[in-house]
Amino acid sequence: MQPVREDQQQALVSRLMTACGGSYSPETRRKYYISGPQWAAAYQGQALFHAPTRPAIGFEEIIRKYGELGIGYWTTHDTDVIPTEALGKEEQCAIVGRIQKALQENGVQCSMVTTETFYHAVWAASPAAEAPAVREYAKFRVRNTVEVGHDLGAQFAVYWPGSLGYYVQGAVEETETLRWYADALNAACDRDIEVAKQKSRPTLKHCLEAKPFEPQAEILLPTSDAMLAFIASGLLTHPEMVGLNPEYLHELMWGAAPRAALARALVAGKLFHFDINDGYRLKHDVDIAVGLVNPLDWLNVLVLLRSHGYQGPFNLDYKPPRTTSQFGVFEVSFPTAVDRFITLWEMAGEVISDPIVKEATDALKAGGAPLNNDPRDVDGIVRANRELLTLHELIAHRLVQILLGLHRGRSFSIA
Ligand code: XLS
Ligand code: MG
Ligand code: MG
Question: Is 211 close to ligand 1, i.e. is its CB under 6 Å away?
Answer without folding.
Answer: yes
